[in-house]
Records
---
Amino acid sequence: MLAVMAALALLVVGGIALVNALSGETEQKGPVTSTPATASADASPSESQAPKSPAAAVPLVITVTGQPTDVVVRVADAQGKVLTNGTLGTGDTLQYDEAPLQVVAANGGSLRVTIYGEVQPQMPNGQRGQWFVRESSS
């Protein structure tokens, strides 16, 4: 009985998220297209701990470095508002200025993910990727 209720709850939440994604709200917050700062990506671990640039304050930057892949980015709160749900092409870069966020990519190996200025470990090509962006403590 509990499993049936959990499945029903997931269907309801998924349906609400789909309706919100398709409603095309004009006030919807979303990604800002930009080019990432390359200097912070090459910093050593000791250098990356010190805030050196405004890029370190950006919660999330996603860059497609491999094949196009499906990506879903949603706000990690009770509403679960979907910010991005679609296929990103090679060279696409999206920047998100809010947190917390949940990120899922069909092919995590196609992405370079930077969270608060720190490049995340590269996923194997073809493997599903998942990341969580926490709210900044500063």
Note: The first helix runs from residue 2 to 22.
---
Amino acid sequence: MSTHDALLKQVTLTATDNNLVARFEIDGDVPGTGAYVVGLVAASEDYSSQRRLGIEFMNGEAISFYSFNHALSTEENYDIKGVEHSGNVITGNFPASAIHGLSEGHVMTGFSEADGREFQSGVPVSEEL
């Protein structure tokens, strides 16, 4: 994957009654070959509690939609129907429970991975919760 493809430009997070709507804007499109992941890292201010929310693509198609709770070492997989992808925008409708238990003063950043390697991390997230 070229560093000119699929750079994560902007991440926004909004809340509905039961969902967290994460909108990932990338520079380009999801790569048509290989693995590509976009997601959020949500943590308490001291990082003692962390969650990782992600959307994984394989050969340009969304194949996995999940959250991982580091404290419990558990992953929850969600129905892929919660993912929308159009051009350079990827939207994931995560259940609000995915970050349940994090305080209001939490830390939230975006990330992307390509073929199993960290591609970007620490991307600022605009939150409207």
Note: Strands lie at 7-15, 19-27, 35-43, 50-58, 61-69, 74-77, 83-86, 89-95, 107-114, 117-128.
